Amino acid sequence: MRFTRTRATLVCASLLLTLAACGDAGSDDEGSDVSADTDAASELEDGTRMKEIADDGKIVIGVKYDQPGLGFKGATDDVPSGFDVEIAKILVSKLGIDPESDNVEWKETISDNREPFLKSGEVDLVLASYSITDERRAEVGQAGPYFLTGQQVLVKKDSGISSVDDLKGKEVCSVTGSTSIDNAEAEGMKPRGFDTYSECRDQVLDGAIDAMTTDGSILLGYAALNPDDLEVVGEPFSEERIGVGYSPESPEMCQWITDTLQESMDNGDWAKAFEATLGKSGAETPEPPQMDPCKS
Amino acid sequence: MDDVWNNFDLVVRAFGMTVGLFLAAGIASLAVGLPLAAMRVGPVAVMRRAAATYVTLVRNTPLLMVFIFVVIALPRIDITFKSIESFQEDAFGQVFISAYFFRATLALSLYTSTFVCEAVRSGINSVPLGQAEAARAVGLTFGGTMTQVVLPQALRATVPPLTSVLIALLKNTSVAAAFGIIEAAARMKYFNNRTTEDVQVFLLFALVYVLLVEVVSAASLVLERRWKAAR
């Protein structure tokens, strides 16, 4: 009798283990599957920064940690996830580096740090909802865009604010060093800058400020996390062209990034990356944007 | 640097905000710090202990923590100071002091008033005990002793340490940059992100800070000269 009970327990335990293993395998598939392309690495020209990184076998990518759907790292996550991260994985795999391995370092890069990190070489690439602007292009390299979005506002439900015009002369928060702050100022709002979007979102949730403003794609991610309390209102009042930042010292990267992104747009990897991240909230996969030519 | 010169109004407005924070928080911390010092040296044990507890608690807390408490923690328990804005809108039809400015001023004043209190207390302690005893001997009350005899002498000795406290306050306003106020430090960061000439921008902003501090110390020097007494 006792023997059978022990055996039953063992069987149960092993069953549970198998189930647990299944669960694990499932979560691995969350992002799109991108594996290292070893052939591509050997095709890189000698003397370029890409070749250097490929030979080194290590790369540091600057991403956001606080933007659900774009670049987000929860307290229990080992690596960040989101559309920016998926695009980064496509680029990394083209260097012959396995994007799932420890050879890729995901470094949190808040808006204010993007240019300094690129200039000092702290990160090799920045994919952190990085809008392409002429001012930034004068300082660092920006390739793309790989995504288009527009600035909107996030408010508390039932706030009575339905458009950007309702916020003229009112305080709105965003993050310092972002284009959103300049746009908000131009629209007649009083911008209040914080370091991260999550701090800003908390201020809205706590009622300390009327609204938060930045790219619609970022706001939708937050609204999806708190659907009962927050909503995105108003028409987009700017066009943000999200691109990849690279060091100003290595202009040769531009063509390589653009080509790699173009390839992913053509072969469907770009669409897969979107569906696995931002598309989850039900948003339709848009047409890939037309990318800027690189200055030679 | 052209970017800075072309947008010089932004620089002026940013330093205007710094000076505004300094003046508002400076007046508030003097207004709170002086009575606090009187409480600490006063004859009522309860007030003495209450003031001592407040000073110990707040002075030993980093300014950043005080800011986090006022700007992030208080709104979470529904203390947002938004009513200040609606009051102004009702009375004047316009908002002069925003809730953010008020919260930053509050955090700075809570913190600085403890230093003001201790600077004033050190001044009071510098007045020989005999002075207070003599004042009481001629029949003055505690209030009379303080306002007629002790404080006039104490304030004279308080000017140098109080100047240091106010200079520290002027520079501490830059902490507000991390809490949504676009003052000089935040503006400097903004320009540094747009230009390759980081060093020049930094030097320009540092220079204006030095100038502002020089104005404060010059004012204190004038006061010191005027109140100088032969001893």
From TrEMBL, chain A:
InterPro entries: Bact_solute-bind_prot3, SBP_3_CS, Solute-binding_3/MltF_N. It comes from the Bacteria. It holds the Pfam family SBP_bac_3. GO terms for cellular component: extracellular region; outer membrane-bounded periplasmic space. One of its GO terms (biological process) is amino acid transport. Keywords: Signal, Transport. Residues 58-281 form the Solute-binding protein family 3/N-terminal domain. Residues 26-48 are annotated as: Disordered. Gene3D superfamilies: Periplasmic binding protein-like II (3.40.190.10). Belongs to the bacterial solute-binding protein 3 family. PANTHER family: ABC TRANSPORTER GLUTAMINE-BINDING PROTEIN GLNH, AMINO ACID ABC TRANSPORTER PERMEASE. This is Glutamate ABC transporter substrate-binding protein. The lineage of its organism: Bacteria, Bacillati, Actinomycetota, Actinomycetes, Propionibacteriales.
From TrEMBL, chain B:
PROSITE patterns: ABC_TM1. Pfam families: BPD_transp_1. InterPro entries: AA_ABC_transptr_permease_3TM, ArtM/GltK/GlnP/TcyL/YhdX-like, MetI-like, MetI-like_sf. Residues 15-220 form the ABC transmembrane type-1 domain. GO terms for cellular component: ATP-binding cassette (ABC) transporter complex. The keyword Transmembrane applies. Coiled coil: none annotated. NCBIfam families: HEQRo_perm_3TM. Belongs to the binding-protein-dependent transport system permease family. HisMQ subfamily. This is Amino acid ABC transporter permease. It comes from Nocardioides guangzhouensis.
